[in-house]
Amino acid sequence: MDNATAPGIQVRKKPLKTRIAKYKWFYLMFVPVLVFIIVFYYTPMVGIRYAFTQYKLIKDPVFVGMKNFNRLFSLPNFWTAFYNTLKLSIGKLLLNTGLAVVISLLLHEIVSLRVKKLAQTIIYLPHFLSWVVAASVFQMLLSPTTAGLLNQLLIKLGIIDESIYFLGNSRWWTSTYYMINVWKDTGWGTVIFMAALSAIDPGVYEAAAIDGAGRWKKMWYITIPALSATILTVLILNLAKVMNLFESAFVLQNAAVMDKGQVLQTYIYYQTFNSGGIPDYGYTTAVGLFKSVVGMFLVLICNYASKKVRGRGIV
Amino acid sequence: MAQATTSKSAARQHVGKKFSVFHLINGLFFLLFCFLILLPLWKVLVDSFDLTTGYGMKLLPEKFGLAGYTSVFTNKSLYIPLINSVITTVSGTLMGLLLSTLGAYVLIQDDMPGRGLFAFMLLFTMIFNGGMIPTYLVLRKLELTNTLWSVILLPAINVYNLVLMRNFFEGIPKSLFESATLDGCTPMQTFIRIVLPLSKAALAAIGLMFAVSYWNDYTNYKLYITKETLYNFQMKLRSIMMGSDLPQANNGAVENTVQNAAVIVAILPFMILYPLLQRYFVTGITLGAVKE
């Protein structure tokens, strides 16, 4: 409002009451948003207190102090799930980002715009399919029966003698999981790098060409440094979300691969909704609280790193 | 759009027109890469039309037939999930857009007392949350579980989309708001007559992001819905794939044909719209970068 005033001259703000009255319609417009975040985000935060209780729904919660956490930290299943969460999330993050950078660099070299557009259209596509669809597609493609394309191909080529149950075998599950993630999300990951590449001043390339730089020199000395800030941003933004891993692991896992595929969120899910007995909501809330706290620290660390690297936080 | 033009000239200038071995290899690489991306989907499409078992390595149907699809479409138990998907996608997207635009419009009022608090309340939810179980317990207490309201309302408030919308609104010249106010527009009128018409690209981009996530939603259904009559198509597809809920195969269709056909039905609406709408999806992701 008062931006036009010359710097140095203090502008006395109008009294708070007048300013609030001026914005009364805006407060009214914000009410729906406020109701939604209070109901769906802040009320559940109050429910965190169940983490310190035994809560089986039929009875009122009973306070048990730190018992849930003691139980949790003594269970090997919990630590496996925690380890898998970090491994799978970070693994797929590094793999997807690395490959997305390489593919962006190569996309950038395509001369024909029509070809480039077509390639982009195709590689973005799987990102928009649901995880249920992705799981269904690969369940059939990787099937160990005669209907499975990959197994049939590998047998025909003489690489293997017997079908491999890629999604049902602990030895193969993790790499299969990464591969499906690459299929689904690497292409879409190039969008942000393509935007960064198109922002490079073409004059820089011309100057380099005049100085006698070839394709690889240009890529190494101009393109890759120009991408480094974007790469860091992508890594930081996604590192903050590693604890949330759920759906992709949930639809691709099965009883035979739980040692590799169980992550914290799926552990909570099974303990609560599929445990066979009466679930203890207090215990699973405690697991969730542990997950949220670790997640929060990751966000704060990433936020700090982001401020250092690019001068502004992630949130 | 400006970015697209720069990228055109940049590509032309730095790559040059000369054809080289590098371009040949690069072209072949993308041919292979695109082939590998499309192959799984092509295979599903082919198998959905193939009435024999043991498809293996075939890339064209051996015994062509539509029985897979007739099995899917004559199965009444699939109508309700499809209808549920449509209802939640349409109403959820509208509600999501309403909340995102309202929230974003308030967040760009720099001078408004309390704006900082509102922004903090929104952003804090991205840092910390109650978690899966406390959220479930709240929905249960509100008696929203086992109603479509749970899967419509909960994802409608999406702070990330709201922030994207705010980034877009920030690009609208402040003078437009001021002159609208001088002309006697109330804030609501300014919002409807000035802000929304100027934001068509952002509405399309963010609306599509909402629509895709509603159509693809599985997690929320899995958590809050146990009644089969409320399943969406993703839930139904999952139980078909798990073999627990296979529609009766008829007219010579086998189990696999029906499963493949069901996958195709699940992705068909999107596949038809995707080539037309692709640029809006890309707009969506680049909105996030506008602020820098």
Overview features:
heterodimer, A: 315 residues, mainly alpha, MetI-like fold, disordered N terminus, B: mainly alpha, 72% helix
Describe this structure in words.
The complex is a heterodimer of chains A (315) and B (292). Chain A is mainly alpha-helical and 315 residues long. Chain A is built from 14 helices and two strands; from the N terminus they run ααββαααααααααααα. Chain A has a single domain (75-310), classed as MetI-like (MetI-like fold, Orthogonal Bundle), CATH 1.10.3720.10. Chain A has a two-stranded antiparallel ribbon. The longest helix of chain A is centred in the N-terminal third of the chain and has 33 residues, at 76-108. Chain A is flat. The longest helix of chain B is centred in the C-terminal third of the chain and has 36 residues, at 255-290. Chain B has a domain at 77-230: MetI-like (MetI-like fold), CATH 1.10.3720.10. In chain B, α11 (200-215) packs antiparallel against α14. Chain B has helices spanning 2-15, 21-48, 67-73, 79-107, 115-127, 132-141, 148-156, 159-169, 174-182, 187-198, 200-215, 219-224, 233-241, 255-290. The two termini of chain B are 17 Å apart. Chain B is globular and about 70 Å long. Chain B has 14 helices and no strands. The chains are: A mainly alpha (315), B mainly alpha (292). Chains A and B meet through α1, α2, α4, α5 and α6 of A and α1, α2, α4, α5 and α6 of B.
Describe the structure concisely for a colleague.
The complex is a heterodimer of chains A (315) and B (292). Chain A is mainly alpha-helical.
Count of helical stretches of chain B: 14
Helix count of chain A, per DSSP? 14
Overall form of chain B: globular
According to CATH, the homologous superfamily of chain A is MetI-like
Helix-strand layout with pairing:
The complex is a heterodimer of chains A (315) and B (292).
Chain A: H1 16-22, H2 24-46, E1 53-54, E2 62-63, H3 67-73, H4 76-108, H5 113-124, H6 131-141, H7 149-156, H8 170-198, H9 202-210, H10 215-239, H11 247-252, H12 258-261, H13 264-273, H14 281-310
Antiparallel strand pairs in A: 1-2
Helix pairs in contact in A: 4-8, 4-10, 4-13, 5-8, 8-10, 10-14, 13-14
Chain B: H1 2-15, H2 21-48, H3 67-73, H4 79-107, H5 115-127, H6 132-141, H7 148-156, H8 159-169, H9 174-182, H10 187-198, H11 200-215, H12 219-224, H13 233-241, H14 255-290
Helix pairs in contact in B: 2-14, 3-14, 4-7, 4-8, 4-11, 4-13, 8-11, 8-14, 9-10, 11-14, 13-14
